[in-house]
Design goal:
The protein has three domains: about 45 residues, lambda repressor-like DNA-binding domains (434 Repressor (Amino-terminal Domain), Orthogonal Bundle); about 130 residues, Response regulator (Rossmann fold); about 130 residues, Rossmann fold, CATH 3.40.50.2300. The protein is built from twelve helices and twelve strands. The strands form three sheets. The chain has a six-stranded parallel beta sheet with strand order 2-1-3-4-5-11, sandwiched between helices. Strands 7-6-8-9 form a four-stranded parallel beta sheet, sandwiched between helices.
Amino acid sequence: MSTMKLVAERAGVSVATVSRVINQNGYVAVDRRRKVIEAMHALNYQPSALARGLRRQETQSIGVLIPQLDQPFFSSLAFGIERALFAQGYRAFLCSSEENLQKESAYVDMLLRQRVDGVILVPTGESLVNVQRLLRARMPVVLVDRDLSGLELDRVVADNTKAARELAEMIIELGHRVIGVIGSPRYSMSISCRLAGIRQALEAAGLSMEECLVVGDQAQQFETGFVAAQRLFRRRKRPSAILALNDVTAVGVMHAAWKAGFDVPSDLSVTGFDDIPLASYVLPELTTVRQPLYEMGEEAVNLLLDRIRDPSIAPRAKVFSMTLVIRNSTSPLKN
């Protein structure tokens, strides 16, 4: 006697009802569904996910490709995505490309072999070719955080330009005119939008981006902030404020300031971006821009599952607002 039949007999239902519960297709009354699940637990019956997926042409698994798992922003985003997927009965293949096209390509190969039902992707600078491969394979794809132009697909992004403009305007209103800007990687669409917003604020104040100090590196974010700030401190016109384009970079800037004997914010105002949990625990607490990471992750999951259920729907873009969070790392320019 098959295990499924044993489950049916114990639950007092038909084998077809057990099959519908396992495969999540067709209507089953709540009380009958509960009896089937209780019978499965009592018999320690674990249906094969692969076999179930083959019957439904689904594997109930989703690929999640992010650039750097060791960065708090991306790990928090991945956590939100995984939690939302799990709540809807899906499992995540979590992959970290390390901003490397070859590594990203290898993970795309793996996800296609595993026949995942869809992919949520934070692209690297050269991801276009990999995204096109996924689309050619008719794989549902959602971009999150970073965007890629020229593609007809779902995306979840934040209004980085507006938020960065408001942040720069706040620093200018505090009297700062020699302003350092540190951010990487330059190919990130999010970083490009943040730079554009800062440029808008500077030009409106009669300043140009060229007159201010812009430094960007490809190193790890903390090291980028630390090393770039040290270079800025050696310039004849030392900045009175530094806008770091993510929070980890800002922490690197603050550490460099401490090593150089500068007080934050009396000698140097520092801002970050994203409002990762660390931002409110460093001393002084970091002025930054809050990005709704968990909400963005949940929305990416919702868009992807909608796309899996109905591939014919038109591509959608969800743009989240960001919030300026003023803490203790910024102050008016000293005369």
